[in-house]
Design a protein that fits this description.
Shape of chain A: globular
Number of strands of chain B: 14
Number of domains of chain B: 2
Order of helices and strands of chain B: HHEEEEEEEEEEEEHHHHEEHHHHHHH
Largest interface: A-B, 55 and 52 residues
Oligomer: heterodimer
Strand order of the largest sheet of chain B: 1-7-2-11
Structural class of chain A: mainly alpha
Structural class of chain B: alpha+beta
Order of helices and strands of chain A: HHHHHHHEEHHHHHHH
CATH architecture of chain A: Orthogonal Bundle
Number of strands of chain A: 2
CATH topology of chain A: ABC transporter involved in vitamin B12 uptake, BtuC
Helix content of chain B: 55-70%
Radius of gyration of chain B: 27 Å
CATH topology of the largest domain in chain B: ABC transporter involved in vitamin B12 uptake, BtuC
Distance between the termini of chain A: 48 Å
Number of helices of chain B: 13
Chain lengths: ~325, ~425
């Protein structure tokens, strides 16, 4: 057992682009589900729009990196409108099925061979880093200490990711504590009561869907910034993993999604390192190291079930502000 | 054109290449016999080559197209019947022979027809010689193709229907949108594989036993998980997310035991029998369709005529009224879980033959199609789910005539969204459910 390698890899999970991407996506879901009560099971689709929107604008249209980010955000707003207009008037579980189907449609469109020139089909997209790295303010070299040592490009991704996360958390804090946020929470608790107060419930829900969708696609961009875009990532399991992170931290909280994402990735990093080592050192008999790495996904599923049954408000949540009202 | 200016050079040339290919495809028929080019792309690092002969006689002017990985090139055979096409990458390519450029009365007679896939070997080249002999070129009319697709779609739809009615019944009686239904489908197939493949039981014993074990698992899930959760008073959304957690856990437990690859049930490669037109079905396909029909009719009879069936429909209509009328709701729900799991298990076995193969996430692959079927027919209505499944199954198969086959599920999912736009209660649903 190489404990120093295990702990160093686990420590990296604390502060990685994937963690920030998950935190952003979970923040979007907190807006959707935690505050507005919208059952969005298509967050993987929003993340795919972020990642592909960014990569395609740069590779196919030759945009700058920041233009690519803008294109992604516009695309995610359009996606929210397409999803929201037919479904926001319907009961919650319809939105769940439509969002999950829409995310799957997107993934199949990105995966098909028909658009291979633009989407790269099953190979995905890579090599869109020039413009982003040219804007890197960090001089060439290594930064950080211990397990958190990064080269200048990784540092740039992390700083930008962290900055995005801080901005999104602040926006959510301001929004939720504003009159707008109180209306949104009112819709979650009792839609008809809010309607009776003369509020346009549909418009508020749509705004919440759009804002959360933007957070989700920013998460997709941060996920894509360091290396490449791979269609195998944006499957429905990704949606469920983000949900697990969200419910772990607390759905109706603002720091909960961030905490949940960090715990999720630290645990994933820890288990993916420790389980194969347990097998190779003979402490887990009768199973192969491939089987050992499957165990952590079984644990995610079991963890999700236990969370929802025994602590639905999550770590930071308040039992009084339970999100599962309906 | 403005856009292509900003592309990288390589991409630009691929574009031109594609355009040329399309043009040649359009005019190829006119010039194919007069052209004498025998090799293209000789400066590229890898090559695909071959020799087209019919019983020793070289065939000149036969058009060959090689494509793969976004690259396409074509040539025609020279006087010796030889051809060579350079390719840019050491990868798999598809080689097709244009049969309309062959002389009358002969055709490609090897299995798989005039389009074959090849892999560049260690030498950097691969040779593909088509087996050519006397034979009829199979020209399939559009009508025959549509008929064939409808029949395959019927087969697929019946299989989906078995899973969809169960999902719909569970939703109707308990209100749960059960995402773990996909894993109940996989469970049937995996159990049949363990009984038939690993324990080598005859398949006609293995399948009924697998269905029984699936039903037992439905009973176990209800009494071990869902009933206690209902007692705890969990909300429907909470239950739905529990089912997602269960789905993830069980899916990866399957992967833990059967690995990431594909296994086959005995008899999956039964030969296809040509029936009429372009329709050919194997004995497995025919058995599968008959079996699903028999089971579905038996199920419909059960739902319409037996005491439990009537109680089930009563609970779907109004659980409180049903309970007040003296119906034992818990008992009926338990039976519904057993029936739903058994039907899902059977559907899984048939799906394993249809795909073909058993894989750890095979159920998850069709979960959204099952949901589409249920929503299309009307959430909570058993016969609606069946109707929805038939529509979805045929739509998936027939649409693959016009859209690329890797997009064939998209059509069904788009329909799912459109139906929610225009008729959210589904074909047989009632309006009050949607509110």
């Amino acid at each position: 057992m190489d404990w120093s390698a295990i702990f160093s890899n686990t420590a990296q999970g604390l502060f990685s682009p994937a963690t920030m991407a998950f935190a952003l996506a979970a923040l979007g879901l907190a807006m959707h589900f935690g505050f507005a009560g919208l059952l969005n099971f298509g967050i993987a689709g929003f993340m795919a729009i972020g990642a592909y929107g960014y990569a395609i604008s740069i590779l196919t249209f030759g945009f700058e990196w920041w233009q690519g980010i803008l294109v992604s955000l516009v695309a995610s707003v359009i996606f929210s409108l397409i999803l929201g207009i037919p479904t926001l008037r319907l009961r919650g579980d319809y939105l769940a099925i439509v969002t999950i189907a829409a995310a799957e449609i997107l993934r199949l469109l990105f995966l098909t061979n028909a658009f291979v020139d633009v989407t790269g089909s099953a190979d995905g997209l890579s090599g869109y880093h020039n413009s982003f790295r040219a804007a890197n303010p960090f001089p060439v070299g290594d930064y950080g200490f211990g397990p958190w040592t990064y080269n200048n490009n990784e540092m740039w991704v992390l700083v930008l990711g962290l900055l995005t996360l801080v901005i999104c958390v602040s926006i959510l804090l301001l929004l939720i504590n504003s009159p707008w946020g109180r209306v949104i929470k009112g819709i979650r608790e009792d839609e008809d009561a809010v309607r009776a107060l003369g509020k346009n419930v549909f418009a508020y829900k749509m705004q919440a869907l759009i804002i959360g969708g933007i957070f989700g696609s920013l998460g997709g961009i941060v996920y894509a910034l360091p290396s490449s875009v791979n269609p195998g990532v944006y499957v429905t399991s990704l949606t469920f993993f983000v949900w697990t992170a969200l419910l772990l931290g607390g759905a109706a909280t603002i720091f909960g999604p961030v905490l949940g994402a960090v715990i999720f990735w630290v645990l994933q990093a820890f288990l993916s390192n420790v389980l194969p080592q347990l097998v190779s050192s003979g402490l887990l008999p009768f199973i192969s190291s491939i089987q050992a790495s499957t165990i952590r996904f079984i644990l995610v599923g079991v963890g999700l079930m236990l969370l929802v049954i025994y602590r639905p408000q999550g770590i930071l949540g308040d039992k009084k502000e339970l999100t599962f009202v309906k | 054109m403005i856009l292509s200016r900003s592309r990288t050079g390589a991409k630009y040339w691929t574009q031109i290449g594609l355009l040329t290919t399309i043009l040649t495809l359009m005019f190829g028929g006119l010039f194919a016999t007069s052209a004498s080019a025998d090799s293209v792309g000789e400066d590229l690092p890898y090559r695909v080559q071959g020799n087209v002969k019919n019983e020793g006689t070289a065939l000149e002017g036969v058009r060959i197209v090689v494509s793969g990985g976004g690259y396409t090139a074509e040539t025609v055979t020279d006087a010796d019947g030889k051809w060579l096409i350079g390719v840019p990458e050491k990868a798999g390519y598809s080689v097709s022979l244009d049969q309309s450029t062959l002389p009358e009365g002969i055709a490609v007679i090897e299995e798989g027809g005039a389009e074959q896939s090849v892999e560049i070997g260690p030498s950097g080249a691969v040779t593909k010689n088509f087996f050519i002999g006397e034979g009829e070129r199979i020209v399939v009319s559009l009508f025959d193709q549509i008929i064939a697709r409808i029949i395959y779609g019927l087969n697929f739809g019946l299989m989906l229907g078995l899973a969809a009615v169960g999902l719909s019944l569970v939703f109707g009686t308990t209100g749960l949108s059960n995402f773990a239904h996909a894993e109940m489908v996989t469970f049937g197939a995996v159990t049949a594989f363990f009984l038939g493949g690993v324990l080598s039981l005859p398949i006609w014993i293995a399948i009924p036993v697998a269905v029984l074990i699936s039903g037992a698992m439905g009973w176990g899930l209800d009494s071990g998980l869902w009933r206690p959760l209902r007692r705890r008073g969990l909300g429907l959304v909470q239950l739905m997310i529990v089912s997602i957690g269960l789905s993830l856990a069980v899916r990866y437990i399957f992967q833990f035991f059967v690995g990431g690859g594909t296994n086959q049930l005995p008899g999956f490669d039964a030969p296809k029998i040509k029936l009429f037109g372009a329709t050919s079905l194997s004995i497995i396909d025919i058995t599968s369709m008959v079996l699903s029909l028999v089971v579905i009719f038996a199920f419909a009879w059960w739902l319409l005529n037996t005491q439990t069936g009537k109680a089930t429909r009563a609970i779907s209509d109004n659980p409180d009224l049903a309970a007040a009328s003296g119906i034992d709701v818990d008992k009926v729900i338990r039976i519904v879980w057993i029936v739903a799991a058994g039907l899902a298990g059977l559907s899984g076995v048939l799906w394993a033959y249809f795909r073909p193969g058993i894989k750890w996430d095979m159920g998850a692959q069709i979960l959204l199609l099952i949901f589409a079927a249920v929503t299309l027919g009307g959430l909570g209505t058993a016969f609606g789910a069946l109707l929805g499944a038939l529509v979805v199954g045929m739509l998936v198969e027939v649409s693959s005539l016009v859209i690329p086959s890797d997009l064939k599920y998209v059509g069904a999912l788009v329909v799912l969204i459109v139906i929610l736009l225009v008729r959210p209660q589904g074909i047989l649903g009632r309006k009050e459910r949607i509110g």
